[in-house]
Amino acid sequence: MNIALVGYGKMGKTIERIALDRGHSIAARIDVNNQSDLENIKADAAIEFSHPDAAFNNVKRCIELGIPVVCGTTGWLERKPEIESLTKEKNGAFFYASNYSLGVNIFFKINEHLASMLKSFKQYEVALDEIHHTEKKDAPSGTAITLAEGILKHLDHKKNWVNKDTSNMQEIPIKSFRIDQVPGTHVVKYTSAIDDIEIKHTAHTREGFALGAVMVAEWIKDKKGVLNMDDFLKF
Ligand SMILES: NC(=O)C1=CN([C@@H]2O[C@H](COP(=O)(O)OP(=O)(O)OC[C@H]3O[C@@H](n4cnc5c(N)ncnc54)[C@H](OP(=O)(O)O)[C@@H]3O)[C@@H](O)[C@H]2O)C=CC1
Ligand SMILES: O=C(O)C1=N[C@H](C(=O)O)C[C@H](O)C1
């Protein structure tokens, strides 16, 4: 298939390599300086990994042009409902995931299962850490937000997450660390006076995120609607 890369940074380049290895061609490489190219190409799908300030307009243009779009950019989700409405209005296809790696999506399920097991054991205090490279624009990571939302679904005594340490028992603290070259590490910790329970996902490279996004693009090209990893993985 013919794939448009919208955003051609660390992720765009890794996605390009994996897409070519899987026999696809690249319809366009859209970056800050060649925005108009999207109007002049034929693409079966667009894969959008750009910047929190650019994602909304990039995705909107793809939907308006009738190009199914797989978006991985984090840090712009307050405007996602507008894109969902537009997708329905235009009968388009929009897929969003805060993390496209298979391992992280398994980790999301384990996280929810653990939270559901611990909902009655309030002696365990939950906290999240996320560690990423120093070029990351947003904090906390989209993945950490998905993990926190997964916990909030099950722990009735927790009301929201905050991106700092907190002594408010109703809040889930997410601490963000920025260390050179780290592709993405997430830790969920339950701490009690007696013992601790920890689950951790460590990405060694960006390959897992990129492979997941290309596989979703292969899957979405003949689909319609607002879609996510639960629709794709069905587990
Ligand atoms: N969902 C997932 O699985 C994953 C999500 N991500 C997310 O993807 C996003 C990109 O990550 P990454 O590739 O590491 O970031 P990079 O900074 O390496 O690349 C972003 C690219 O987008 C370009 N860009 C900026 N504005 C626009 C625009 N208006 N149109 C098109 N391109 C634009 C930048 O250009 P310039 O350099 O000139 O500014 C840059 O080339 C981030 O939000 C990150 O959190 C990352 C990994 C996995
Ligand atoms: O910016 C990154 O690099 C990553 N961003 C995503 C996030 O915010 O969760 C996914 C992954 O952790 C890498």
Automatic annotation (TrEMBL):
Its EC number is 1.17.1.8. It is an enzyme of class 1 (oxidoreductase). It comes from the Bacteria. Residues 1-100 form the Dihydrodipicolinate reductase N-terminal domain. InterPro entries: DapB_C, DapB_N, DHDPR_bac, NAD(P)-bd_dom_sf. Pathway: Amino-acid biosynthesis; L-lysine biosynthesis via DAP pathway; (S)-tetrahydrodipicolinate from L-aspartate: step 4/4. One of its GO terms (molecular function) is 4-hydroxy-tetrahydrodipicolinate reductase. Gene3D superfamilies: Dihydrodipicolinate Reductase, domain 2, NAD(P)-binding Rossmann-like Domain. Residues 103-233 form the Dihydrodipicolinate reductase C-terminal domain. Keywords: Amino-acid biosynthesis, Diaminopimelate biosynthesis, Lysine biosynthesis, NAD, NADP, Oxidoreductase. It catalyses: (S)-2,3,4,5-tetrahydrodipicolinate + NAD(+) + H2O = (2S,4S)-4-hydroxy-2,3,4,5-tetrahydrodipicolinate + NADH + H(+); (S)-2,3,4,5-tetrahydrodipicolinate + NADP(+) + H2O = (2S,4S)-4-hydroxy-2,3,4,5-tetrahydrodipicolinate + NADPH + H(+). PANTHER family: 4-HYDROXY-TETRAHYDRODIPICOLINATE REDUCTASE 1, CHLOROPLASTIC-RELATED, DIHYDRODIPICOLINATE REDUCTASE. Belongs to the DapB family. This is 4-hydroxy-tetrahydrodipicolinate reductase. The gene is dapB.
